[in-house]
UniProtKB/TrEMBL annotation:
Organism: Actinidia chinensis var. chinensis (Chinese soft-hair kiwi)
Annotated pathway: Amino-acid biosynthesis; L-histidine biosynthesis; L-histidine from 5-phospho-alpha-D-ribose 1-diphosphate: step 1/9
Entry cofactors: Mg(2+)
Protein name per UniProt: ATP phosphoribosyltransferase
Name of a matching Pfam family: HisG_C
A GO molecular function held by the record: magnesium ion binding
Amino acid sequence: MSVANLIFQQFPSAPVASLSTLSPFSHCSPSLRGTVKFTVSCSSLVSPVTVLDGSVEKKVFERNEIRLGLPSKGRMASDTLDLLKDCQLSVKQVNPRQYVAEIPQLSNLEVWFQRPKDIVRKLVSGDLDLGIVGLDTVSEYGQGDEDLILVHDALDYGDCRLSLAIPKYGIFENVNSLRELAQMPQWTPEKPLRVATGFSYMAPKFMKENGLKHVSFSTADGALEAAPAMGIADAIVDLVSSGTTLRENNLKEIEGGVILESQAVLVASRKSLIQRKGVLDTTHEILERLEAHLRAIGQFTVTANMRGSSAEEVAERLLSHTSLSGLQGPTISPVFCKRDGRVVADYYAIVICVPKKLLYRSVQQLRAIGGSGVLISPLTYIFDEETPRWHELLSTLGL
Ligand SMILES: Nc1ncnc2c1ncn2[C@@H]1O[C@H](COP(=O)(O)OP(=O)(O)OP(=O)(O)O)[C@@H](O)[C@H]1O
Ligand SMILES: O=P(O)(O)OC[C@H]1O[C@H](OP(=O)(O)OP(=O)(O)O)[C@H](O)[C@@H]1O
């Protein structure tokens, strides 16, 4: 298919700018560069670039501080601060209108509050070293830039998916898959499938990769779900979480139409990790705390007493139930008491970790095999010897 079919048109209210003025899109992948006409521009404050002999070289401002970008407002903002707080990395902000803050536990680190898309742009430009945003934002504004590295790809909030949706009615009534949509005879060079989206990089890329010929795109700042009913578009590409907005606007997702599953991620600049002093160590500490906290979520410590002839015999009984096996296995210690003037240990204290969803069943099983005095407390952290993500990061960096 010719990519020239992917033409970005404008919504009546959208601002117009030519491709040459669009700094965020000027590093489009070669396959899209120069062939897709965008009409909406967003500018961002990033370090200036210097052009030397036709190549672009970034003028990096000298700085020693490590910079972490966090969402300044919107859906991700408070959940991000809550997560860091749960990891004992509370962000100290003097007042909510101040965009710089600190995390006292991490020396030499500055927190900068920015809009999610600007966090990604500033990671690419070298003005930030680390950031927490949605994967959708990294994919859209990072545009596959190899300098962006996902340090933690599943922070467990901000879950949503980027999806293609079409009307439930009219010519789309019996269309339920991307293949069926692509095969509709209606789409021609003169009358392409009109898609409304805020994802002006991801949506055309997806259409192209899935062989959808004759597609045009338009954009708007929000309420995209209105576009089909208004007659402005045939389909939309937008974020979906509960699906309520689609349903309320008589739209449906289709098989094969999910472009990306997204959640909050920790992303870093490869250059910063390798070149900037202290960034790798700070990233290690943040990663360890995140991993330890996220691993502990939904896990409980269960302690109980069990009668038994030996620790091994108690272990046999526990290990015969998978829900009582803990993370690595049960910890079993003798409980000493004095009987007839002699110190004996015919009780054992057992400690295991149990996921919340198995808690009640585990307690029942524990009682059934002789457990008594069962105590349950939530877990705050589970620190492993070393996190797999840290090893992955080092290998990605070639270290
Ligand atoms: N239902 C949802 N709709 C939109 N975003 C969601 C949803 N659920 C989770 N998210 C996450 O929240 C992010 C949107 O957050 P927010 O609204 O603050 O940003 P934004 O829309 O990119 O900001 P801006 O106002 O600068 O355009 C998305 O990038 C996505 O990762
Ligand atoms: O599947 P749902 O849970 O209904 O969520 C999806 C909706 O949420 C977002 O819009 P947002 O509320 O940010 O407003 P906007 O349309 O003005 O961007 C997104 O753009 C969808 O419209």
